[in-house]
Design goal:
By secondary structure, the chain is α/β, with parallel strands linked by helices. It has a single domain (10-157), classed as 5'-nuclease (Rossmann fold), CATH 3.40.50. Helix content is 49%, strand content 9%. It has helices spanning 14-23, 30-41, 49-53, 60-71, 80-92, 104-116, 136-143, 151-157; strands at 10-12, 45-48, 75-76, 119-121, 147-148. It has a 5-stranded parallel beta sheet with strand order 3-2-1-4-5. α5 (80-92) packs across α6 and α6 packs parallel to α7. The model is unreliable at 1-5 (pLDDT under 50).
Length: 162
């Protein structure tokens, strides 16, 4: 899908938070993470409970930041309608690895974005072969849910300037 910035609200895949925390560590880039929180408070992007649940404990700085956002009431929870739609999505476009359960959060993310007309921000690539499991950009394209993969678009949307 075409990447654009039309003053949309974004929902972030867990991989975005993890990549930001690697490239812009919380203890070295306090201004960036304050801007992330400020833009979250303004409703420029959405942080889902299923996304923060995927952040591993070994990424203590990010896990703590996510926990702080939860304490402040800034995390959105998926509900049964999103869960039901996520099952439908996976039945239409196989995303979840049945052995590991990996990527179940992706179906919730897409269901939430679809229901709320949000733009998905994920660094996930497209599937390589037709026999591979579907990836976020593949399914978003099929469902006509906007998706971006370039950080610059998101950073401009939340008006982040270093």
């Amino acid at each position: 899908m075409k990447e654009e910035n039309d003053s949309k609200v974004y929902v972030l895949d867990t991989n975005i938070l993890i990549e930001f925390s690697k490239w812009l560590p919380l203890d070295l880039n306090k201004v960036f993470w304050l801007k992330m929180e400020e833009s979250l408070q303004k409703g420029q992007w959405v942080l889902l409970d299923v996304a923060i649940n995927e952040v591993e404990r070994d990424n203590e700085g990010l896990k703590k930041w996510c926990d702080d956002q939860k304490k402040k009431g800034l995390i959105k929870n998926i509900d049964d309608s999103h869960r039901n739609r996520a099952i439908e999505i996976n039945n239409l476009y196989k995303m979840i690895d049945e052995t590991t359960g990996k990527s179940d959060g992706d179906t919730y993310l897409i269901a939430y974005a679809e229901a709320n007309k949000l733009v998905v921000f994920s660094r996930e690539g497209y599937r390589a072969k037709d026999t591979d499991l579907y990836k976020i950009p593949d399914v978003c394209g099929e469902l006509k849910v906007k998706v971006i993969r370039r950080p610059r678009i998101f950073l401009e949307a939340i008006e982040y300037k270093n």
